[in-house]
Fold these 2 entries.
Entry 1:
Amino acid sequence: MERKRAKTDEEAVELEGLDPNLIMSMERLQEAQDELDQANEAANEKVLEIEQTYMEKRRPIYERRNEVIQKIPQFWLTAFLSHPHLRDLLTDEDCKAFKFLKSLSVEDLGDIKSGYKITFEFGPNPYFEDSKLSKVFKYVEDASTAELGNAPHWKDGMDLTKSKKPETKEKKRPRKTNSFFNWFSDPVDADLIVGLMQDEIAEIIKEDLWVNPLTYFNNENGSDSDGDDDNDDDDEDICETDEEDDDDENEDDE
């Protein structure tokens, strides 16, 4: 146990005139609190050791789960759209790109105290060249801070973070959009992530979606419990299908 800190002159003056029994009780209370702090710190270290051990045991199970998920069409897109906090982050165009999402993984950096990396793996698609998009978050003083992510290398004319409509007639510069793919950039423009900070999105993915995506794929938490028909209609319109787009184009041609 650490040696007790000597009282300063100011503290000595403040203690003058106080009941000696009260002073002794306060000192004993401080000693007890110091011991509790040390015990809690030791307990936290043990918890981290146990978590590290089971993290390694869970890894092959996650890999096996991922193999099964890849056999289910649009699994991660469905899970995203059923999640109450993530569903609003995808634009209609994002949904089309997410149909090519094969797997999502969360990996701790060395140990669980350092941080983690979230990786999205895509199959060949008409939007970007990358097969993997990732973002790293490192813990600094008990808080997570975003590190450099790898923004997509967009194919010509397919950048979902840029509007296809020019900002003004004078400036032919494309406007930014609220695309989820802005999240992979560094730094992220706060205005482009609706309602959530980038580390909040990461925590939701890490602690909720990735832990049990089947819950959301089955729409257990994404559905409205009150059975409101209007809300059900809204759910169907979250992500337009390619067939709907084709119908719109045919109507325009007519």
Entry 2:
Amino acid sequence: VTVTHRGLAAFAAAAADRYDAGPGDRVLQFASPSFDASVLELCVSLLGGATLVTGEEGPLVGERLAQALAERRVSHTLIPPAALATVDPRAAGALPHLRTLIVGAEACPAHLVERWAPGRRMINSYGPTEATVVATWTGPLTPGTGAPPIGRPAGATRVHVLDAALRPVPPGVTGDLYVAGPGLARGYLNRPGPTASRFVADPFGAPGERMYRTGDLAPWDASGELRFAGRADD
């Protein structure tokens, strides 16, 4: 995926504001450098004046993950729900330094919000690499409200939920999720066919603008947030 400097700069500015890490904070490098989540960790930490906590060899799960969070006084981290679910539930209340917990890369179940949201900011983030790391995010999640939404557009990102004729669907109706805006990638390197099929003309943008067909399904809920509803090809 060929992302642009413009898209990366837009994401970095929006992420610094949303995740709010600064001097004195410590951001765990959980993701492999080959995964786009590592870009989030770099932007949130170094561009905000925080410390990027490195050197933890994977896989970081279970007791090893809890130990790393505690011993290295991590204040901000992005952890996929599958990895978070391996941590002893008692650890959630025993990490006083952990103030911002970002979940992403897959659907987050309600029980993890119940366990991990109290006492800290827990933010659900969604986005394909084709939209430069994150396309939508939530505010702080609240326990007792069921499975979390994937939120609202991040920064200057534009999100459309459309039917098969590329018409917007009403709130509550599931449609195909498209992403547009400054974070949109140029396409797939040296793969013009897949690029043309997934990066299509944006009928709601300026002439020449494109949008990315994510292949995900979602409705807008009554509060104006997106709810992940699976894949179109399932």
